[in-house]
Design goal:
Elements: E1 2-6, E2 19-23, E3 33-43, H1 45-52, E4 68-75, E5 87-90, E6 93-95, H2 101-104, E7 115-116, E8 128-132, E9 137-138, H3 145-148, H4 154-165, E10 172-176, H5 180-192, E11 197-201, H6 205-213, E12 218-220, E13 230-235, H7 241-248, E14 250-258, H8 268-272, H9 276-280, E15 285-288, H10 294-307, E16 313-317, H11 321-329, E17 336-340
Parallel strand pairs: 10-11, 10-13, 11-12, 13-14, 14-15, 16-17
Antiparallel strand pairs: 1-2, 3-4, 3-8, 3-17, 4-5, 5-9, 6-7
Length: about 350
């Protein structure tokens, strides 16, 4: 099979082709696993975090990709929940132990044995991948394969972020950054919380224009002061500065939800700007998002189809994965980027 493989940590400021095209045998499955013929795989900023070592794979080589859609072409003995040719998807959560206190509460995202697709196990930048049958999901007929792929991370993590924000109808929501995840959050809010006013903070005028097309009531640069203070802000950016900027736009008792596996730069200058009185006082709260659960993915897939939410996508052949990754890194983003096989 053809695959795009990461062989080592790479500094993307020096190397714009971190992945190598290789030919590999098809994966062998064991009990509890299925073999998937991949048709589409979304490209996520978390792949950049893996490549540059902010969330490094435990071993190399590894095949990235955790927004995977395809068709089952093999099942292990005793696997009865799925059959050949079922269309399924795989998200960031590859597996969890199923026995710890977190798993028993439906918080597999916090499991000490959490494994991530495309980091701890090979992912979907390939023609085939194997998956744990307990962590795959049927896809609503409403979506094409390419449309469905961003729902497995950008959509699911956005759904979890919105849940953690505790936002109520009639309140004000801020979205900092406006890429794959944020544009799906805005579409979801328009459906599920129609009386919420959404304010978008983005550094690119193209992103701000896109947000206005989708219904944002106001857009501005990430460092701007909005005309209203937010009840909640979801920060979808990969850097630190927006954390400080977002807190300035948060009202008393407001909540900042940081939707990122990792932040790129640790710049003490930004943190030195953090003032307890200006940014944190009045019971403001910062909440991080850690991974996703099985329910996040399954619930979002169902809700997105019910709401008619289609992600904006740009397609790339598998062999152009490096180009797609660099476009994400350089913020050439309108919606989500998807590799198609």
């Amino acid at each position: 099979m053809k695959a795009m493989q990461l062989n080592r940590i790479v500094d993307l400021s020096e190397n714009h082709k971190p992945l190598t095209s290789v030919q590999l045998p098809e994966p062998k499955i064991i009990d509890g696993e299925v073999l998937i013929k991949v048709t589409a795989c979304g490209v996520c900023h978390t792949e950049l975090d893996e490549i540059e070592g902010r969330t490094p794979p435990p071993s190399f080589p590894v095949i990235p990709g955790h927004q995977v859609v395809g068709y089952i072409v093999g099942t292990a003995p005793g696997e009865s929940a799925y059959k050949i040719n079922d269309r399924v998807g795989v998200g960031w959560i590859y597996s969890a132990c199923g026995k710890c206190a977190y798993c028993l509460q439906g918080l597999e995202n916090l499991c000490p044995e959490f494994k991530a697709t495309g980091r701890d196990e090979n992912g979907g930048y390939a023609e085939y991948m194997k998956a744990d049958a307990k962590f795959i999901y049927r896809i609503p007929d409403f979506y094409s394969d390419a449309e469905a792929s961003p729902l497995f991370c950008a959509g699911a993590i956005g759904y979890r972020s919105l849940h953690l924000s505790q936002l109520k109808n009639g309140q004000f929501l801020g979205l900092t950054g406006f890429g794959a995840s944020a544009h799906l959050v805005l579409k979801l809010v328009r459906f599920s919380l129609p009386e919420v006013n959404v304010f978008v903070f983005a550094r690119s005028e193209n992103e701000r224009s896109f947000a206005r097309e989708l219904g944002a009531v106001w857009t501005g640069d990430i460092g701007e002061k909005a005309p209203e203070q937010m009840h909640a802000i979801i920060d979808t950016t990969p850097v630190w500065k927006p954390v400080v900027d977002s807190l300035k736009n948060l009202r008393p008792n407001g909540r900042l939800v940081i939707n990122a596996i990792r932040k790129e730069d640790y710049d003490k200058d930004y943190l030195q700007q953090l003032s307890y009185h200006e940014h944190l006082w009045m019971e403001k709260e910062i909440k991080s998002v850690a991974n996703v659960t099985k329910d996040d993915i399954s619930e979002f897939l169902k809700l997105a189809a019910e709401a008619g939410i289609r992600p904006e996508i740009s397609k790339f052949p598998l062999g152009e994965a490096n180009t797609a990754l660099m476009e994400v890194r350089n913020s050439k983003i309108r919606g989500a980027k998807v590799l198609v096989m």
